[in-house]
Amino acid sequence: MAEESRVIVGDCSHLPFSRGEAARLSALRDEIESKIPFDPSHPDRLFLRRLAGRPILEWPVTLPPRDPRGVESAQTFECWKKASASKVGIAGSYFSFKAGGRTALHSHLEARLLRFFEMCPFVIEIRTQYPAWDREKYLWYSERGRRMRKSDVMTIDFMLTLQIPGYPFRLYHGVSGKPAALANNDKVVNRHRREEANLWRWGGTHEVMTEETIPEIEFRNHRRLFALMLHTEDIGAHALAAAELARALYATKTRGSLARVLSMVAKRFGWNRRRGYRLFGIAHFLGYLTWDHRFLLGFDRPMMLTRD
Q1: 3-class secondary structure for 133-163?
Q2: Domain 41-209, CATH among 3.30.70.20, 3.20.110.10, 3.40.1350.10, 1.10.3720.10
Q3: Could you tell me the pTM of the whole model?
């Protein structure tokens, strides 16, 4: 018999700007301060949020046609499960530069994670609903001239390709998104163990993320920064200008709202406000700027950038 779980009536701890959210932001601050460098001898200790370093993303990214398992790279990759296959979450098709266009997501949690990955300069490629299967079982079917059953292929929510400064190889990092309330469910835990074992066989790593991994304020910030970049056809063509803007913003003594500071700095370079805003988003995308996500990003609010 399942045990009853008690819920506090009127509990608001999950809402933005609540005490619960404040506690999660405090934990995030501790997490940021305790970041650790990647240790190739312990790949099981790789947690993307805890990864130390300030990489600069070179764009466009050069990728091989296929990964070590033979699955196509983002430009030609097709999600194993379309958004319409979702039975529980709010599914949709979302645009991503790192996914090479629109990609299928099965829940709001996945959309939340996608925006974090999009604005994380360690991540150079995103593939969603990535297929994973047992190679020995595949060979068994092949030898008998039969097609492998669809039920024998599981999908991993995200397959990220990472480029970590100082590490000479691309790293393939699988991420499963699950609501925190279900993360310790026996079936979910067993599923994640199977995903992890499958990835280990070919040198990939695995991580589970929940809605608590990306606080609501940070999700809003990433979404707003990403929106500033939309309709940018060639990000690489703006890289130098984005770097110049970042240096100027870190050095400026101008005070006031983000809109005021950004407009004044952009004007020094002869850029209009629209170009300044676009470069502000691109500078975060490439890693030249890092917003302090304890604070909501708003153009009527102060500029809150983190510094080395």
Answers
A1: CCHHHHHHHHHCCCCCCHHHCEEEEEEEEEC
A2: 3.40.1350.10
A3: 0.86
